[in-house]
Design a protein that fits this description.
This protein is mostly helical. The chain has helices at 6-16, 20-40, 44-53, 69-77, 82-90, 102-123, 134-142, 152-162, 166-179, 181-184. The model has no long low-confidence stretch (mean pLDDT 96).
């Protein structure tokens, strides 16, 4: 089984996803996965395409019964590696697939946090991610009515599973997302 190239992954993402916000989410997760791979001494291009494809089926199959299961079927049909497929399955608690390795754990840890960071950026006067600091994320974190769809417990669990503090994890995600701020429109 071979890993898809970034171009192949992006093409598949765009085939199934028209919503630009979902595409930006995939790009944010991709950037975080690539940076974390470097920190763990793993191949960034493999982890990045896993991040890019983790939600590619969500727009067409948003129910918990379908996502990410339908997408995983498509990926298996293309002969993509089981390690990628396992990580995509493990990124949602509802799948009951155990996170077994750093690829699984990091995808889980960055997925929800990227959305929260975007929400924080959008309420800044500048609406720019460059103006978001860990302190501003933590301030909004305490406001349970802010971005209430984001599972904060999931993010905290993800950081714990990585063995790093939440603030350190937030900073890592901010740093990754700031590198692609233009693509994110932030």
């Amino acid at each position: 089984m071979s890993w898809p190239t970034r171009d192949e992954a992006l093409s598949l993402l765009r085939e199934y996803t028209e919503n630009e916000n979902l595409i930006k989410h995939a790009l944010a997760v991709e950037a975080c996965m690539s940076d974390y791979a470097k920190r763990f001494g793993e191949p960034p291009e493999k982890w990045a395409v896993t991040g890019l494809l983790h939600d590619f089926d969500y727009e067409k199959y948003p129910s918990m019964e379908d996502h990410p299961f339908r997408g995983v079927g498509i990926l298996r049909g293309k002969g993509y590696p089981e390690s990628m497929i396992h990580a995509i399955l493990a990124h949602g608690d509802h799948t009951h697939v155990k996170r077994e390795n750093p690829l699984d754990k990091i995808l889980y840890a960055v997925d929800e946090l990227t959305g929260f960071v975007v929400a924080v950026a959008l309420v800044r006067p500048s609406k720019k991610i460059r103006d978001v600091k860990v302190k501003s994320v933590r301030k909004k974190w305490k406001d349970k009515s802010f971005a209430r769809g984001v599972d904060r417990e999931c993010i905290e669990r993800g950081a714990r599973d990585l063995g790093i503090g939440l603030d350190h994890h937030i900073q890592n995600v901010l740093d990754s997302m700031k590198q692609i701020s233009t693509e994110l429109g932030l």
